Structure formats: C-alpha cells, structure tokens
Amino acid sequence: MVQPEWVTLILDGIMILTQAFNLCVFHYWRGKEPFVLLHIALAVMSGLVGIITAVTPLVRILPWDHTGSVMTINLAFRAFQYIETLYTLILLSISVDRWLSVEFPVKYRAKISKTKIRQAIAATVVLAVVLNLPDMIVHWEVIAAFCHKPVEQSVLTLARRIWKILAGPFILGVVAVLQARLIAIAVQTKLKRINILSRQVGVANNNGNNTAGGVEVVQIVWSSLRASLIIVLAGVVSGLPRVIPLPVSTSPILLRIINLIPAVQHMYSPVVYLLFFPQYRAVLVRICGQMFQRPSWMKLRGVVAAPIRADRSASSPTQMRPA
C-alpha cells in the first residue's frame, strides 16, 4: 500500500509541474496586457504551495533529528498559511481588476498599467503579512507537529475563528459578489444586443421567430462566465477546511483527505486556461507549431524570437467582458 507521504509528494509534484507549464506559456506571451501579471502571480503562489507542502512528507520520510523535524514542519505549516492567504488576495485582485474593466471600460483602459498591477501585487503581499503575522505570533505554541501523524488542529478560540473567517471565506465572499456583478452586466449587455438584433430581424421579416433568443442569451452568458464560476467555486470549496472546526476524534485518514482539498485549486488552472482562455491557447499553439516546424537546433531560438501580438479582446478565466 502506498504511504500517504508519497501520495502527498505526487500531488505536490503535479502542482509544481502544472504551474511551471503556466509560467512557461506566460513567459512566451509577448505584448501581455497588465492583468496577465496577476495570473502570473497566481501561478507563482500555486507553485510555492506545492514546494512548501512537500516539506512535511519529506521530513517524515527522511531520518531527521526529532527537534529539527518538528520545527521544520511548523515553519512549513506557517508558510503555507501565508501563501494561501496571499493566493486568495491575488484572486480577489483579479476579480476587482476584471470588474473594473467591465464596469468602467474607458477609464480602466486609460489608467491601467503594468506598474499599477505590480503595485497591487506588492500591496497584497503586505496585506497578507498583516493578516497572518499576529496569528503566527500569538498562536505559534498551540500548533503541534509530529513526524508520524498529521499536524494537530489547534483549539479555535473566538478571536482565531474571526481571523480565519477574515483571512479566507470573507475574501472569497467578496470575490463571489464581484462575480455576481459581472454576471449581471453580462446578462444586461447580451439582452440589449439580442433585443437590437430582434428588432432588425423583425423589420426585415415580420414573421420571424425570436423564441430562440432566450436560449442564445443563456448559452452566450454561460460560455463567457463558466471559467470564472469554476475558479470561484474551487476557491470557496478549498477554503472550507479553514473555517470548519473538526472534532478531536477525527480520523487521521479523513483529516488527510480534507487537508488535500485545497490542492485541487493549484492543479486545475492549465485545463481552465486551455479551455476558456483563447489567447493562452493561441500562445501555446503557436509555440508548439514553431517547435515542430523548425529544425531541432532552431527550436528554442525560434520560439523565443517569435512575436506574439496582444489580443485586446481576449478574456481571462476570471474575466468576463461583454462581447
């Protein structure tokens, strides 16, 4: 039977590889719009999660000193808390960015820049420190790490429960509100365009049937928003273990399974990008095409030198831009 430590290491390896794949595609993406920097930051955070969570199983497998092992696991656990909070804040930044681009498109285009996005990322780094450092100082002693079983769950006091809600579900709730606003804008825009089209068809053909309009609206809205809904849903589900207290008698196996739930959000992004991010897919197709068309000694050089034109109309997985 495969040991749980090896299962965790395999999942960590998948996280690292998938995010390395994302970063590779983003690297060869020329003429990136500013919002793409947020997706790069998101991929970096997911890759760091894979690296940090690999520390605990490695410590348990390798014959380390007991005191050093416990300290290393505790440090890895605290680093994981920080990176998870930072990941959630970057996800919130993406949602805010996409909401602004839809709600105020003209002003957004005029004022947004890569410098401002970098400043926003720096602000999330500082905010994550503010949210996590007090808890790390106050509750460091109540975290018990072992080399042969999962990290013990600390007692959730009222203050710590409030902190957990603010650092996770509250932020995800704001993300959900922003996504709901994007859905409302999408529905309003598509309905207006369908009505305009219906009037034009009605003028040309008084016997025209517009019963398919509602179905078309649903299909258009769903196709443009399902990526955002997938990301938000995965974020909400992965945040549940942070706020739901588990009884002391919880089975170690069940505890491991619950703790692995957040790993899903750090592995699935390449699939979402490929399915619902046209410009990401175009970059990957162009890279692969150049690699297969050129001689082997020119492959790398050809890919690097290939200009990739920015598509201003492209949408990100957390972007919904009415079209």
From TrEMBL:
What is the species listed in this Swiss-Prot or TrEMBL entry? Answer: Hypsibius exemplaris
Q: Do the record's keywords include ATP-binding?
A: no
Give residue ranges for domain G-protein coupled receptors family 1 profile.
Answer: 88-273
List cellular component terms (GO). membrane
Membrane-spanning segments = 6-29, 36-59, 79-100, 120-142, 162-184, 229-247, 253-276
Q: Which UniProt keywords apply?
A: Membrane, Transmembrane, Transmembrane helix
Q: Which Gene3D superfamilies does this chain map to?
A: Rhodopsin 7-helix transmembrane proteins (1.20.1070.10)
Give its localization. Membrane
This chain's protein is named G-protein coupled receptors family 1 profile domain-containing protein
